[in-house]
Write a structure and sequence with these properties.
about 140 residues, mainly alpha, two-stranded parallel sheet, DUF3597
């Protein structure tokens, strides 16, 4: 999966991959089948695919990020303007190599040296791309 895809998924949420494409959860683990079915309990109903969700409103990117920051206890991260802090908040490796890959994905043509210019461009490009794909991004995050 692309770096931008990981960012988008972390903010927009993961879609159900559909029946047959979900990972198998081992018996006895949370969400998996019981180790030994009890004779007193009825067998669980077969899983039904979730109905396709129709987005009614765009995802409020700033609200999602604010909520994540609060939940994770990371108020020191400057995710509203820093690509490195945004990636850290989302649990994505913010190494220079990953930022170079992201720069290639988004069409950056400058030096891939991790400079402030590159990082500022990346943050703005990520926010614009999230907006293009259905996110509601405040003007101050678009640059």
């Amino acid at each position: 999966m692309s770096i931008f895809g990981k960012i988008k998924d972390a903010i927009f949420g993961h879609k159900d991959p559909g029946l047959g494409n979900r990972p198998t959860i081992p018996a006895g683990m949370d969400g998996g089948p019981p180790l030994q079915p009890s004779a007193a309990s009825p067998a669980p109903a077969p899983a039904q695919p979730a109905p396709a969700a129709t987005p009614t409103q765009p995802v409020d990117v700033a609200q999602v990020l604010d909520d994540m920051s609060r939940e994770k206890g990371r108020p020191e991260l400057n995710y509203k303007s820093s690509i490195v802090d945004l990636m850290k908040l989302l649990g994505i490796d913010s190494s220079l190599e990953n930022r170079k890959s992201l720069a290639h994905e988004l069409g950056y043509t400058g030096a891939l040296d991790g400079s402030a210019e590159m990082n500022i461009w990346l943050h703005k490009a990520v926010m614009r791309s999230l907006g293009d794909q259905g996110g509601k991004v405040p003007a101050e995050m678009l640059g």
